[in-house]
Amino acid sequence: MSQSTYTVEGMTCSHCVSSVTEEVEQIAGVRNVDVDLATGKVTVTSDTDLSIDDVRAAVTEAGYQLAS
């Protein structure tokens, strides 16, 4: 198992959290997604290390962006 934490910009409500969670959960191997709205932190637990490009694409699809 692998765990990674990312910062997502632009989330302001529970709908934002749901959107990001749903998109990131679709990445192959993802087991759990925990979003902290107050900090913008998204912690992803997966079977293997995730590609940052895959995570960035999922977050972008949800309508947000990863902090650089």
What does it look like?
The protein is an alpha+beta fold. It has helices spanning 14-25, 52-62, and strands at 2-9, 30-36, 41-46, 65-66. The chain has a four-stranded antiparallel β-sheet with strand order 2-3-1-4, with helices on one face. A hairpin with a 4-residue loop joins strand 2 and strand 3 (41-46). The termini are far apart. It holds the Pfam family HMA. InterPro entries: Cu-bd, Heavy-metal-associated_CS, HMA_Cu_ion-bd, HMA_dom, HMA_dom_sf. This is Heavy-metal-associated domain-containing protein.
SSE layout and pairing:
Layout: E1 2-9, H1 14-25, E2 30-36, E3 41-46, H2 52-62, E4 65-66
Antiparallel strand pairs: 1-3, 1-4, 2-3
Main traits of this protein?
single chain, 68 residues, alpha+beta, Alpha-Beta Plaits, four-stranded antiparallel sheet, 2 helices, 34% strand, Cu-bd
- Main structural class: alpha+beta
CATH architecture: 2-Layer Sandwich
Mean pLDDT: 97
In quaternary terms, these chains amount to: single chain
Helix content: 25-40%
- How does the overall form come out from the CA principal axes? globular
Distance from first to last alpha carbon: 25 Å
Order of helices and strands: EHEEHE
Q: Uncertain runs with pLDDT below 50, 5 residues or more?
A: none
Beta strand count: 4
| Rg (CA only) | 11 Å
What is the count of distinct domains?
Answer: 1
Reported by name, the CATH topology is Alpha-Beta Plaits
Largest sheet: 4 strands, antiparallel
Q: Strand share of the residues?
A: 25-35%
* CATH level 1 class label: Alpha Beta
Task: Provide a count of the helices.
Answer: 2
Order of adjacent strands in the largest pleated sheet: 2-3-1-4
Protein name: Heavy-metal-associated domain-containing protein
Domain HMA: 2-67
InterPro entries: Cu-bd, Heavy-metal-associated_CS, HMA_Cu_ion-bd, HMA_dom, HMA_dom_sf
GO molecular function: copper ion binding
